[in-house]
Structures
1.
Amino acid sequence: MKRPNVLKLSADNSTVVGVTNKNVTYISIPNCVKTIGPGVFQGCRNLKSVYIPDSVTKIGECAFEGCSALENIDIPSGVITIEPSVFKYCSALECVHIPDKVKVIASFAFIGCSSLKLIHIPNSVTSICNGAFMWCSSLESIDIPNSVIHIGEGAFNGCFRLKDIHIHSGTCLTNIPYQIFGNNTNIIIEK
């Protein structure tokens, strides 16, 4: 059965600029798309699954904000920056695959992803910005690769189940910023 097309594309078909139905449950983005525009799927509360092809190199700010039924996401291999608030309040999101080319996890990228249990930060990431994983209350452990040279304030604030932080040896991270873990006192940092 063919699914109706709910995507609005730019004139050259390279950018998703909107959706015609905010109640959609599944979206498959065509291979011609290179960019998912800012806020495109914002508030699609029934969206459970998205196929994003490797042709996509940019997912705009707040693109999936408030997609509270979204359970997992594979970020395409060409994406270099996970934009601000891109998965903000995706409260059902349990697993995210971040590809090896990503360098920056921007501010509040995963804020309020309260079901997020597993996140693999690849060795390409150099910056985890302010509040990037704030209120990811199901996150229990995290590995910070030695490529990370900056972690912003409150990056893991509100991650109340977070108990184990492993910072790889040889890291250039010299400063653990203010309120990186909020008031969580159960953290064990291994270096």
2.
Amino acid sequence: MVLLRVLSRRGLGLLHPRRRCPCQHQHQHQRQVGGRGLASQAGASSAGTARVLAYLAKVQEKADNLEAAVKKGKDDVEFMQLYNLLRPHIAAINLAQDERRELEQLRSSDDSEMREAAAAEMEAVDQRIGGAVEATVDVLLRPQGFDDDAAIVEVVPGAGGAEAGIFALEIFNMYVGYMQSLGFDVDVTEFESSKVQLTTGISRATADVAGTGVFSLLKYETGVHRVQRVPVNSTRMQTSTCSVAVLPRPDLAAIDIDEKDLSWTAVRASGPGGQGVNTANTAVRLVHVPTGIAVNAQETRSQLKNRKSALEKLKLILYQRKFESEQRNVSRSRRSQIGNMDRNEKIRTFHFGRNQVTDHRLSESRHCNLEQLLSAEGNYTPLAHFSELLRRKAREERLDDILSAGP
């Protein structure tokens, strides 16, 4: 380093030699956070960095207080898990701050070469502090409970009659194509087509999208999509809508339900007869006793396979109810500029007269070939662009919530 070479030529060392904190002094070193350390960092020029440093100061203060509380038999497991993740970054920042204070003294030296070398070294130290702050943000914004899940995408038409069914089909095809273009496996599990005269649309369509993190990628697509265009055999502009819902799909095999909470009943299958389908109790009805949720399964002539199917249906319902409950709690606790993943919230408009798609949460529009975008083999650049901006904005909002609430 420049400063070390200057000091070496003069037979000097730093005011305090650079060192890694020995284990026996580490706790004392970390305590600086709560005092003269993080919150007062002179190099934290951005407001965002200063807020993170202030947050870490509170984390260290709370950890110090908890240490005394633990001796009295009290504990905060969730906080200590967070603290253990943040501890190395707090230590790294404190070590860098020690060096920064030494450099501040050297910058007041009468030796011009020493002042220049100290200034250059201070830039490197500030970069290290910035890197530790970024690592801290990554810890605070680690994936939430459902983010790593696969996803279920459901599209249903809204207002607009037959044109709404056509638009819903286009939106569904767009998401199927978009996910396939990203390399995810897509399985269309439900597809109810609708026909009015010579037009074809859907009354409902659902797809399972397999892959780690798919839900995190798609969750902000939930909401009402609107199209403005002149339908076939018409001369007037019409507005139609469809609703998109994106739900997490868990690994059902990893979900355990206590057998004593399940009530099974064998029943006869309903529907068209033949081959003895209605003469044997192969269908099953499953009730989850604590919640009263009931599901039926009669897809096959094997009662064993139908039991497996019914259990999977129940697991999925329970998981999605848990998700929706958590989303309601989030919605009540904050007002988000990007929305709260409400399927009734208007989020995007496709305007064919302007060749433009607008995301209302971002107040941003992109010009593109809408016919190509709304297809299974389209150019999905606008969709990817909006998705990236929404995820970035969501991170900013979430970080703001965390820093405002404190540890």
